[in-house]
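Hi there, hope your week has been kind to you so far. For a while now I've been wondering how a particular protein folds. I'm sending you its amino acid sequence along with the backbone structure tokens. Could you read through the record and tell me how the tokens relate to the sequence? Take your time with it, there's no hurry, and the full record follows here.
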Amino acid sequence: MTAPRLVAALLAGLAFIDTLIFSQATKDSFVLKETVAALLILAAWTIVAVAGLRPGVGALGWPLLAWLGAGLLSFVNSADWILSGRALFFMALWASCYWLGRMAPEAWRLRTVRAAVLAGLVTSIYGLIQHVGLDPLDWATTFEGRPTGTMGNPNFLAGYLVAALPAALMLAWRGERGGVAAAFAMFAALILTQTRGAWFALAGGLASFAALARFQIANRKPDPRAGVAAAVVLLILLGPRVAGRARAMLSPAESSRVERIFKWETALEMVRDHPVLGVGLGTLKTQFATYQWKVRDRWMAEGHPIALRGTSESNVHNEYLQTAAQTGLLGLAAFLWVWAAALTMIWRRRAEPLAAAAGAGVVGVLVYSVTNFPLQIEPTACWVFLSLGLAERGGDEREASVPGSPHPRAIVCLLVAS
């Protein structure tokens, strides 16, 4: 097998296997997913290095390097370089999926998308099984019937489906029956997670997909099955659980809304103290305990007491504020540059189906990032960057075989050590 095809096969495996593996011991355990993803990505980069392939910088290259550089600069204020180093390591790995995706041969681009969609279909079906109370596994919590799929948390599942559902829609527009089935299952599972921020993200993603897809489907007749699927989804939306969850959004005292606002203000306190470089990448959890008391005391002085459920938080349920808190306004500027460059690249390639799927996924994730942290969840982050790389044709796709390595044991030892 040639080097680019071997790299592409690893990426397809990443898109499929890493989404589905899990451990139900704890509700938010991603150690297994992160480990497998890291090994697959490092293996792919080992092949790239041995074969002498050149991924090229790409449209997102400099923005991504600036984002990683801002994370590195934040070490200046970090109280724990081990935490910051770990965060930067994984941040670089997930972002590097973009460059790996650019090197995938044309024939493997669609295969990788199908692998991701198949994984989305499987985890969505499992989520639907959980919703009806037939889950054969014993999880730490059931989240009151909200589907978690293989993600262990309904919010995590919702974020992944927001990113991957446009890929299923792309296959459906191509006339692939598997795409139609996956799109419906993923849509139903996403709605039933009752994650309200993901509903808005889904709307943004679908609108973006429709806007981009019109450049490719002007002469295609609509599939009547879409109407049937829409009718069934409408019945789901009218279900008492989902309707009640939607009504709760209108209450200013709703607990999750109050808790998020509290976390956002805590993040802003960190930005006020460290506006340029932040408190340090990956150190939010160690800093949250100190800064939350400032917000709590201010709220109490204003007559809005809040009961603190804990003294530390790993995420503030807003990617933008979390980026600013940990890496400062410099990091936030680089972060926004990444997504501006991504959307610009997508627009320039809007006539291509993969661009429509990747662009809609990015828009959905950016909307969802206002109320959650999808890019902190490894399968979602990997797929977003990988889909952008697949959508952008570039990099070294030459049909070069992997040359025999004079030190194969050294490479294996390097991967195991990593």
